[in-house]
């Protein structure tokens, strides 16, 4: 199937352009060709696109080759009852283009390197229209491998165009390889930075954990000592809390509920402010007791040495402080 067609006799089908042969003669690149029993030629789109510098063969076909000039391999061979060619490179869903599709794809290439190839294709079409056929001369040196296709000579401008395309593809491959190496280098640098960051975060976490443990020890020590302060006489005393004051009063008092209600109201004020300057009416409003009963409760607390009087404020309200023994 890869053998070139014989020269046509009068009335026979004209010989198709054997693209695989002239590409082989130039650079050794392989553009495969399938020749059907009726003499039509089909070419794998991926081979042609590669030689023209297209990176996306599907898009190139969609943009430049009409559907009637492209088909998949299974459909082409199945129409003649033929099987898929042997070998892993031939796939059932491979895109093929016919000779007209090949010419359209070549003519659509806008790259400067394709110009000589396009000019040569135009000359081939003109020759076929004028003379009815186009024949390539056989190259002086033929491949020695058994079964290899015949190598044909080609116009110099075509060979130069293909060589430039190959050089361009090699340059693109080198640029891609350089980009990949740079990307790998950057990824390694980022990985090193991430490792350093992780190590710093671990060290910071260890310091934070040590600080938390130190704060917990200080808090435990603080709870044990409460808060000590030095009294005028030189001895150490512990600052009272509302809970400690009420606990002390409960041990010393055996009183009615209303007295204890007044005690619960005034204890936080005495602890936080150091003295009580509220009018009796304010305490009565907060406890629900009468002013007279509030006054009696305060007198009872003074009697049991829970509080002591410090005179009166400017507004006449009595002033009381804790009676610390």
UniProtKB/TrEMBL annotation:
Protein name as catalogued: DNA-binding protein
Question: SMART domains, per this entry?
Answer: Bro-N (SM01040)
Bro-N domain sequence ranges: 16-132
Annotated InterPro entries: BRO_N_domain
Q: PANTHER family per the record?
A: BRO FAMILY PROTEIN (PTHR36180:SF2), DNA-BINDING PROTEIN-RELATED-RELATED (PTHR36180)
What superkingdom does the record give? Bacteria
**Species this chain originates from:** Streptomyces diastatochromogenes
Q: Which GO terms describe its molecular function?
A: DNA binding
Whether Iron-sulfur counts among this entry's keywords is no
Record keyword DNA-binding present: yes
A UniProt-annotated Pfam family:
Bro-N
List the keywords (alphabetical). Answer: DNA-binding
């Amino acid at each position: 199937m890869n053998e070139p067609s014989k020269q046509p006799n009068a009335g026979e089908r004209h010989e198709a352009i054997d693209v695989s042969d002239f590409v082989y003669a130039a650079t050794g690149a392989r553009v495969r060709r399938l020749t059907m029993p009726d003499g039509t030629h089909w070419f794998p789109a991926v081979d042609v696109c590669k030689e023209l510098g297209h990176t996306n063969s599907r898009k190139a076909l969609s943009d430049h080759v009409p559907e009637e000039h492209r088909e998949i391999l299974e459909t082409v061979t199945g129409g003649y009852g033929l099987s898929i060619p042997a070998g892993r490179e031939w796939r059932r869903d491979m895109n093929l283009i016919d000779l007209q599709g090949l010419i359209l794809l070549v003519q659509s290439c806008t790259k400067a390197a394709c110009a000589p190839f396009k000019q040569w294709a135009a000359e081939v079409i003109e020759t076929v229209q004028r003379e009815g056929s186009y024949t390539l001369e056989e190259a002086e040196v033929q491949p020695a491998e058994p079964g290899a296709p015949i190598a044909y000579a080609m116009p110099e401008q075509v060979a130069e165009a293909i060589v430039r395309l190959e050089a361009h593809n090699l340059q693109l491959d080198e640029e891609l390889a350089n980009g990949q190496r740079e990307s790998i280098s950057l990824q390694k640098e980022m990985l090193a930075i991430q490792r350093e960051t992780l190590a710093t975060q671990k060290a910071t976490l260890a310091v934070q954990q040590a600080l938390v443990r130190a704060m917990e020890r200080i808090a435990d020590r603080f709870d044990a000592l409460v808060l000590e302060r030095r009294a005028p006489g030189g001895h150490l005393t512990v600052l009272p809390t509302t809970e400690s004051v009420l606990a002390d009063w409960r041990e010393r008092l055996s009183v009615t509920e209303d007295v204890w209600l007044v005690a619960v109201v005034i204890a936080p004020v005495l602890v936080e402010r150091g003295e009580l300057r509220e009018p009796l009416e304010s305490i009565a409003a907060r406890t629900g007791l009468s002013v007279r009963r509030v006054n009696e409760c305060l007198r009872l607390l003074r009697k049991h040495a829970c509080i002591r009087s410090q005179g009166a404020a400017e507004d006449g309200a009595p002033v009381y402080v804790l009676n610390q023994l």
